[in-house]
Design a protein that fits this description.
The structure holds two protein chains of two kinds. By secondary structure, chain A is an alpha/beta fold. In chain A, about 40% of the residues lie in helices and about 20% in strands. The chains are: A alpha/beta, B alpha/beta.
Chain lengths: ~220, ~230
C-alpha cells in the first residue's frame, strides 16, 4: 500500500504558508492514492530533542548490547526512523530560518541519521565509507522563506544553505530523488507574497495532475 | 574594542570530557586570556543550557514591540534575550562545534535561531540599497573549532563538497557583522599530526598573534616582540 510521510515543521498554525502548501499536495496525493496511508508528523506538536551524549553512546552500541536506558535514549529516534522507512514518499514542509533549516528540522535529521538503520559504516569499501540503507523513496520539499530568489538560479541561491544540506544528508541515506517547491516573499507580503504562493500552488497542482495521469496509465495497463 | 575586551565562548558539543572541540577551545581560551589579561570571558555551554526550538509564542513575542509585550511574552523571550545580550556584549567569539550530518548540531542551530533577532542583532530594511541586513553586534572576529569524523572537510580538502557547516556559519555570522571568521578542523581520523597541529596553530595565531598582548598596557612590548 502506498504510504506518504507528511511532515510539517512550521511552528505556526493557521498563519503558516508551508502547512497550507503541503496540505494541498497531500490532497492531490490522497486523490491519486485512494487506498494509500498518510503518516503525519507535526514537529510543532512533537519536537524531537537535540542529540545528547547518551543518544550517541546508545546509537553506536550494537543493538543486542544496549541497556534499557540506552534503548530509552533511542526510542524517539527509532519511531522517527520507522516512519521514514515505512514511507514510499516523503513530503516535507519547511520554513527557512536564517538561511537554513529550523533547529527542529535539524533535530529531526539528527534523529533519523542512524547507523545500521538508515546508513551503514563500510570502511575501505570502494564506493565509500557510508552505505545508504534507505531506498526507493521520492521526496518533495516545500520551502517557504521571508525573502525571495532562494531557488536554484535565483539571486540569493548562494545563501540557501537548506537545499544543499538536505540533498547532501538525505542523499547519504539513499534518498536521491528530491523535488523542491519554493515560495518566498513572506517578509515583503502583499502582492509579491500572493504571486509566490500562487506559483507554488500551480507547481503542486501540476505535480498532482501528472501523478494522477501516471496512476491512470498504470491502472489501464494492469 | 571596549575598555574590557569580552570573549563569548559557545560550546555546542554534547560530549564532556570526550569532546575534541572542547579540548581545542580550552587551549584557545588560554591563548586569548594571555593576550587579554584584563579580558572578560562569558561562556554559554549548550550542554548545560538547552535552547528550545523557536515556536509560535516565540515568534509572536519577538514580533511584538518590547514595550507592548505581556509578562508571558517576556518570559518566552527571557532565554533568547539573555543570550542575545551576551552576543551584543562580545568583542570576540570562540565557538566549539561538532559537525553533525555535515552541518551544525541542532542545539547550535537553536542558539542561532534564538540570537538572530531583528532590531537587536541585525536590522532588516526592505528595499535598501547595498544590502537588506545591517549588523547590530560589535564582534568582528570569530574563532570556530569544528570537530569532525574524518579529515578533508576544510576548503580544498577531499570532503569539502560535503561540508554544509562552514558555508552556513560564514553566511549567518556575516549577516550579523562578523567579518573575520577563522575555522579550524580537528578530525577523528584521516588527519596527520602535522595537519592537525597546523590547523590548531592557524587558530591560535589568529586569536593571539605570537604572544602578542593586545591590551593597551603592553601594546608597545607586543610590537617589539612581533617585529
Amino acid at each position: 500500500m502506498a504510504t506518504l510521510l507528511h511532515l510539517d515543521a512550521s511552528p505556526r498554525t493557521t498563519r503558516s504558508h508551508s502547512r497550507r502548501l503541503t496540505a494541498r499536495f497531500a490532497e492531490h496525493w490522497r486523490t491519486a492514492n485512494p487506498d494509500g496511508v498518510v503518516l503525519y508528523r507535526d514537529l510543532r506538536v512533537f519536537t524531537p530533542p537535540h542529540v545528547s551524549e547518551d543518544w550517541i553512546a546508545a546509537a553506536f552500541t550494537p543493538e543486542g548490547q544496549r541497556t534499557s536506558t540506552m534503548r530509552n535514549a533511542l526510542a524517539i529516534s527509532d519511531m522517527l526512523v520507522d516512519e521514514v522507512l515505512a514511507a514510499d514518499e516523503l513530503l516535507l514542509g519547511i520554513p527557512m530560518y536564517n538561511w537554513s533549516m529550523p533547529s527542529v528540522v535539524k533535530a529531526w535529521i539528527d534523529n533519523i541519521v542512524r547507523i545500521n538503520r538508515t546508513w551503514a559504516f563500510t570502511p575501505d569499501h570502494p564506493e565509500g565509507n557510508y552505505k545508504p540503507l534507505v531506498h526507493g523513496k521520492r521526496v518533495f520539499v516545500v520551502v517557504t522563506s521571508g525573502d525571495n530568489g532562494l531557488e536554484p538560479g535565483g539571486e540569493n541561491w548562494h545563501v540557501n544553505h537548506l537545499e544543499p544540506h538536505l540533498r547532501t544528508i538525505l542523499g547519504m541515506l539513499g534518498m536521491k530523488e528530491l523535488h523542491f517547491i519554493y515560495s518566498g516573499n513572506d517578509e515583503h507580503g502583499g502582492e509579491r507574497l500572493e504571486r509566490s504562493l500562487a506559483n507554488a500552488e500551480r507547481l503542486i497542482d501540476e505535480i498532482g495532475r501528472s501523478r494522477r495521469e501516471t496512476t491512470l496509465v498504470q491502472e489501464a495497463a494492469s | 574594542m571596549s575598555a574590557v575586551p569580552t570573549l563569548l565562548q559557545i560550546e555546542a558539543s554534547p560530549r564532556g570530557q570526550r569532546s575534541r572541540s572542547r579540548a581545542w577551545t580550552s587551549r584557545l581560551l588560554a591563548a586569548w586570556r594571555e593576550a587579554h589579561p584584563r579580558g572578560r570571558v562569558v561562556t554559554r555551554d549548550l550542554r548545560i543550557t538547552t535552547v528550545p526550538h523557536v515556536d509560535e509564542p516565540w515568534i509572536i513575542a519577538d514580533a511584538t514591540p518590547a514595550a507592548q509585550r505581556t509578562p508571558g511574552m517576556r518570559a518566552r523571550l527571557a532565554q533568547s534575550d539573555a543570550m542575545t545580550r551576551e552576543l551584543l556584549e562580545a568583542d570576540d567569539l570562540l565557538i566549539g562545534l561538532p559537525m553533525y550530518n555535515w552541518g551544525v548540531p541542532s542545539a547550535f542551530k537553536a542558539w542561532i535561531d534564538a540570537v538572530c533577532r531583528e532590531g537587536l542583532t541585525f536590522a532588516y530594511t526592505p528595499g535598501a540599497v547595498g544590502g537588506l541586513y545591517t549588523p547590530l553586534i560589535k564582534a568582528r572576529r570569530a574563532f570556530v573549532v569544528v570537530a569532525c569524523g574524518a579529515g578533508g572537510y576544510e576548503p580544498g580538502g577531499a570532503l569539502w563538497s560535503l561540508n554544509q557547516l562552514e558555508p552556513f556559519v560564514r553566511t549567518v555570522l556575516g549577516v550579523l557583522g562578523v567579518r573575520e571568521v577563522h575555522l579550524g578542523y580537528v578530525a577523528g581520523e584521516g588527519q596527520s599530526d602535522s595537519q592537525r597541529d597546523a590547523m590548531f596553530e592557524g587558530l591560535r595565531r589568529a586569536i593571539a598573534p605570537d604572544g602578542a598582548r593586545q591590551d593597551e598596557a603592553v601594546a608597545g612590548a607586543a610590537s617589539v616582540m612581533s617585529g
